[in-house]
Structure formats: structure tokens, C-alpha cells
UniProtKB/TrEMBL annotation:
This is ATP-binding cassette domain-containing protein. It comes from the Bacteria. GO terms for cellular component: plasma membrane. The keyword ATP-binding applies. It holds the Pfam family ABC_tran.
Length: 257
């Protein structure tokens, strides 16, 4: 196994994944620095979810290696990978999957309690995150009484509450209206920065990718380019800084490489 550069907390080397014989990833390599927010961009079906599942140890590639903080994930057994996921990783799905019998704060506290945090402390932490995600008022509501967007905010709070080392977010704003997306992404990225979390964010949307420090793009299961996006609040202007249209254009270029 080739040692990764010192500042990479998570890396993949030459991943090949086939789903029932058809290729989903072909020779994909990448590294993620500690505390970095990395977007994995690309159109639908390009392999983003498959890559996140490999990086998080949910899926073993048929070929290739994955490492996290000095541990070779591809060499671990299923239960060791499960423990690692529970203790160090967080996951946000494109649609919220909550436990219907638990209210919003209990759902948000679930991973903390699984990690052995006492109920009172877990509740206080869950309520803080629900407030930050603007759904504090829903704390006692069951999922059926919440809108899809509120449920997704609860799911984001649940992933952030234990402050995992790495958050994998697969199209995390898919169920949100455009106006809500920026607020949830701002909360997610601000939380990651303030707690030193690393984020790997799959998205086919350039506006979402603009919240990341860097974008790695996939096309038909292959890496096609890396785009360095400027900060999202960088003003457009005559000084040469990029406006939104130019930023979108740059990101789109990566797919044509
Ligand atoms: N469980 C599976 N069984 C069979 N084929 C699969 C499976 N999961 C993914 N694929 C196929 O692998 C390829 C990559 O899929 P993947 O979901 O990783 O892409 P994606 O970029 O995340 O797409 P989307 O944005 O639509 O989720 C696609 O062709 C998809 O149809």
C-alpha cells in the first residue's frame, strides 16, 4: 500500500467498482485533506454515490484501496468497518430516513446515544443542532408531522450532532426548496469548519458545489478534472473576481474534460 501524503485524512487509490457487471467506478483516485470540504460533482449516474459508499466503508471496491487516518478500510472486516462508520463517520442521504416512532430531538440524538452519550446530554446537544438548523420548534414532533424539508434538517442535525471526523453528504439538499438550500449548506459547512470536520459532498448542482473548497468531477465513473471554486460570497466585479455565471461556467467546464 502506497502511503498517502501526510495531510490527507481520507484517500482512495485506483478504485474499480462494477454493479452486476457494469462499471460504476473506473480507476478513481482522490485524497481529502483534514477539515476540507470536498464536492464530488458530476451528472446523474456518474458514480458519485458509489464513490461515497466506498470512501465510507459501506461498499468494498472490487479493486483499489481506501484509507482513513492511517487505517486501510479495504483490509478491515465488516464489523470493524461498521464500528468505524458509527464512531468516526456521519452520513446524510438525499431523502431523510428518520425513525417514525421517535420525535425530532430523539432522532437527532440517536447517534449520540448509540455512542454511549447519556440521554440528558444527548438531548441538549440535539436541541442545539435542531436550533442551528432552524427546526428547534419541531423538537417534539414526530416525522409524519414534519414537512420533507424539516425532516431533512433533522437528518442533517443527526449527522452533525456527534461531530464525526468525516461527514458524507449525498445530495443533502435534494428535498429542499432553492431558498432553503443555501441556509442548510451554510449551516453544514460552518459546523464542519467550527468543529474541524471533513466533508465529502456529492452533488450534480454547481451552486451546491460552490460551498466546497474544491470539486472533484466524475463522468461515467471516471475522474475528469478538478475545479477550484472561489468562495461563494466572493463579489463579482471589475477586479477580476468571478461572478456566479462565470463560476458556474468554470464548474461546468470540468465535465467536458
Ligand atoms: N446497486 C446498484 N445496482 C446496479 N447498478 C447500480 C447500483 N448502484 C448504482 N448503479 C449504477 O452505477 C452507476 C453509478 O451510479 P451512482 O448512483 O453511483 O451515480 P450517481 O452519480 O450518484 O447518480 P445519482 O446522482 O443519480 O445518484 C449508474 O449507472 C447506476 O445506474
Amino acid at each position: 500500500m502506497v502511503a498517502p501524503p501526510d495531510n490527507e485524512v481520507l484517500w482512495a487509490r485506483a478504485l474499480h467498482v462494477r454493479h452486476h457487471g457494469s462499471p460504476a467506478l473506473t480507476g478513481v483516485s482522490l485524497g481529502v485533506r483534514e477539515g476540507e470540504i470536498l464536492a464530488v460533482g458530476g451528472p446523474r449516474g456518474s458514480g458519485k454515490t458509489t464513490l461515497l459508499r466506498c470512501l465510507s466503508g459501506q461498499l468494498l471496491a472490487q479493486e483499489g484501496e481506501v484509507g482513513f487516518a492511517g487505517t486501510a478500510l479495504h483490509a478491515l472486516g465488516a464489523s470493524a468497518r461498521e464500528r468505524l462508520r458509527r464512531d468516526r463517520f456521519g452520513w446524510i442521504d438525499p431523502t431523510p430516513v428518520l425513525v417514525p416512532e421517535l420525535n425530532a430531538w430523539e432522532n437527532a440524538a440517536l447517534l449520540l446515544m448509540l455512542r454511549g452519550v447519556g440521554r440528558r446530554r444527548a438531548r441538549a446537544t440535539a436541541l442545539e443542532w435542531l436550533d442551528r438548523l432552524d427546526v428547534g420548534r419541531c423538537a417534539r414532533s414526530r416525522p409524519y408531522a414534519l414537512s420533507q424539508a424539516e425532516r431533512q434538517r433533522v437528518a442533517v442535525a443527526r449527522a452533525l450532532a456527534p461531530a464525526p471526523a468525516v461527514i458524507f453528504a449525498d445530495e443533502p439538499t435534494a428535498p429542499l426548496h432553492r431558498a432553503d438550500r443555501a441556509q442548510v449548506l451554510r449551516t453544514l459547512t460552518a459546523a464542519a469548519r467550527s468543529h474541524g470536520m471533513t466533508v465529502v459532498l456529492a452533488t450534480h448542482d454547481t451552486d451546491t458545489a460552490a460551498f466546497a473548497d474544491r470539486t472533484v468531477s466524475l463522468l461515467d465513473g471516471r475522474r475528469v478534472d478538478t475545479v477550484h471554486l472561489p468562495p461563494v460570497d466572493e463579489p463579482a466585479g471589475p477586479t477580476g473576481s468571478a461572478g456566479p455565471a462565470e463560476r458556474e461556467g468554470r464548474a461546468a467546464c470540468s465535465l467536458s474534460a
